[in-house]
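User: Sorry, folds how?
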Amino acid sequence: MNWQDIKVSDDNTHFVFEEKPIFGRMFIEVLKFHSPGLAPVKDESGSYHIDSSGKELYTNRFIRTFGFYCNRAAVIQSDQWFHLTEKGERAYKQTYNWTGNYQENLCTVRNSNNKYFHIDLAGNRIYSESFIYCGDFKDGYACVKTTNRFYRHIDTKGNFLNEKEFLDLGIFHKNFATAKDKKGWFHIDKKGNEIYQHRFLAVEPFYNGFALVTQFDSNKIIINEYGNYVISI
């Protein structure tokens, strides 16, 4: 039985393989299996992880457990957050007020001072600066909210990608990112430059050359990478 073929039941209480319940038991809650074939579950004893045979990965119990990403899973013990390895062992000694999920072997965390930064797989900070907020890395870049309350992009060493700052910001997707200034939302390139002059109430990332945007009259249209109108939705 391949763990990738194991599904979560509609009520999130058990696992299903080929449309039939497996493991011979119900849980209070289950989440789906992630690589390397482990899933978070919760029963009367607490939260933990199981393997693709339904066997518990370890005997410890947590307040809550989350899925594995980059062979690391976020868990809550008392009111402290940290990550486990795929062997069910602590990945590092530090604890946080919150942790995200690892993406590209890096993870955003929030410390006891409610400051955000990123750590590597060993729990080490990858730069010295702290931010009001940090997002996940994608394709080598992440969005952060700086102490002056503007958003910027950083690379995996914590360096700013460019000198531009915005009221809000999205991750890069197919070389462009969503951004917001005082006039509204639009798209930018990696230099932080607008790729067209129009502004919108809301914008989505480009999908194969086209993006869904919402105009200020709330009408939705499709635009191309030049910002030109294509069709109404």
Notes: The chain has a mean pLDDT of 97. The radius of gyration is 21 Å. The chain is about 0% helix and 40% strand. The chain has three domains: 1-91, 100-161, 176-233.
